[in-house]
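Box 4.2: Ligand-aware structure prediction
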Amino acid sequence: MTSAHTDLAPVTVRVPAKVNLELLVGPLRADGYHSLSTVFQAVSLYDDITVAEADDWGCTVAGPLSHGVPTDGSNLAVRAAQVLAAHVGIDDPVHLSIRKSIPVAGGMAGGSADAAAALVACDRLWGLGLSKDELEAVGADLGSDVPFLVAGGTAVGSGRGERLAPVLARGTFHWVFALGSEGLSTPAVYAECDRLRGDAEIPEPTPSPGLMGALRTGNARELAAHLRNDLQPAALSLRPDLGDVLAAGVEYGALGGIVSGSGPTVAFLVDGIEAGIDLAIALTASGVVGDVRRALGPVHGAHVIPHPVD
Ligand code: C5P
């Protein structure tokens, strides 16, 4: 191992959340993962991660949605920095300051986003100059969603979600996210999906032509008609109240609604900024939803930003 540098300026990276426009869950694989065909879209809810040289590895977590994030070595962003250091043979600990605005355990890949941000930030801090492809390859071992949060935009994920292919998507889509009051465990939701399926024979999934067509046209109404999440029945089974949230969103004007990833965040597609504001107000006033966020997609993946002044 080599110690690379000293007195490096801290680096801040902004990383988006994701929503799955389509999440088709295939059979359970021998390694415990399910084969997937998914279409990811990066959306404008962001965590900011600053990495700085330090005597020891560690992190601090701040922001309105920071509750429940580990600050020890089990934090995925710290592990990502350590994995990258080992990958390139660097022995320089860093401290990560994580400012969270992506819901924790919410089905929007908050942990994977922080890992992706840590990879991009350490790459810059250490002057490695690795390509996005290389960073995505390092990220794939850390979590199925990490490569997509490095890439951003709109992409098809296959394998366990980590193998990416870009998708031709036109225009910008407007989203309203209803946040759950308590997170859901991703493994628990997959296990519930298996339980609900029982012994049914599950085919290998492939992206649906209808969704791909809707993305090519950029028509939000068409996209709304093709939103699909195979984990939704499992999330609703574990959290039946999410059914009320989905119904309320559509009643108050959403073009379509879907549980985001493994939930419990519910994603509503709307017909523009005004419709998004109206829906956010109506959902909040209804009392069915505690907290809402508006966002746009697609947006760029993890990227360096000027260091914020505190
Ligand atoms: O890859 P990641 O660590 O994000 O996955 C978290 C958990 O979600 C896995 O341990 C597994 O239980 C479940 N999972 C799955 N199939 C996938 C992705 C995740 O069963 N393709």
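In the box above, the bound molecule is cytidine-5'-monophosphate. Residues 110-125 form the longest helix (16 residues).
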